[in-house]
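[Meeting: bench + compute handoff]

Bench side (C.D.) handed over the final construct sequence. Compute side (W.E.) agreed to return the predicted structure before the next meeting so the bench team could plan truncations. Sequence as handed over:
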Amino acid sequence: MNKMRFLAVPALAISAVALAGSPAMAAHDGTYSSTLGQLNGTTGTGTITLDVAGDQATVNLQVSGLAQTFMDAPYPHVQHIHGGAQGVCPTPANDANGDGIVNVAEGAPGYGDILTTLTTSGATTPAEGLNLALGGQGGTYSINRTITLDDATQKSLAAGTAVVVVHGLDPATAGVPAEVFSSPSELNPDLPLGATSPALCGTLVKAQMGAMPYGGADTGVAQETGSNAGMVALGGGLVLAVAAGGTFAVRRSSARA
C-alpha cells in the first residue's frame, strides 16, 4: 500500500506539469458545421465544416446546384461568415418591401454583418465581401483552405451567432420579374439585386465532444420559378443581361453582403 501511494504522488505531479505546459483551449476552439438552407428560390445545396484552433480555421465548403452559367461564363458566388446579431437565417417573412426577394438589408438583422469573407484564395477580410474574382465560380464548387479568423469572428463562434451566407440567385428560379432581379443592389448600385442577395444560409453549430452536429438551419423557403437573365464574367467583374432588356456592368467592389 505504501509503495502504491509513493508511486501515485510523482504521477500526479507529472500530470499537473503537463497540463500547466499545454496551451489553453479557447472558448471558440472546436469543430463547427452547418447544412445550408435555401433562400429566394434557389435550388442549390451546401455544407460547411470549420475546424478552429485559436485564430486558425480549416474551411471545407461544398456547394452545388446554384446558378451556374450566364452567357457561357461562370456565375461568381461570394460567401461569408456573418455575426454579431441573432445568429439566425431569414425567412420569406423578412421580405419587408414585398418585392419577392429577401435582400441583404432585410436578412442582416438576423445574421449580422460580414466578419470573414470565405474567399477561394487571398484575403478574407470584410473588404473582400463583394470581390467577385475571389468568389466561387459556377454552380458547383468547393473551398478548402486554412484561414485566419479575426477577434470578432472568434467571439461570434463562441457566442453561437456565426452564420454562413452564400450569395447569388438564379434569375430562372428567383420567382420575381426581371426588372426586380436586375434592380440596383442596396449594397452597391452597380450590382444587380439578385446577384448580391442570399441564396444559401446556415448557422454554424459547434460539435459536442466526441460527436459531430447533425443538420443545419431550416430557412423554410419554398422553391419558386421565375424569369430569365444573362450574366457574363469579364476579368474581375461581370455583366448581367436581363431578358427585359437592361444590361448591368459589374465591377469588383467591396461592401457588406
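W.E. noted at the follow-up: The domain at 25-250 is CATH 2.60.40.200 (Immunoglobulin-like). C.D. will use this when planning the next construct.
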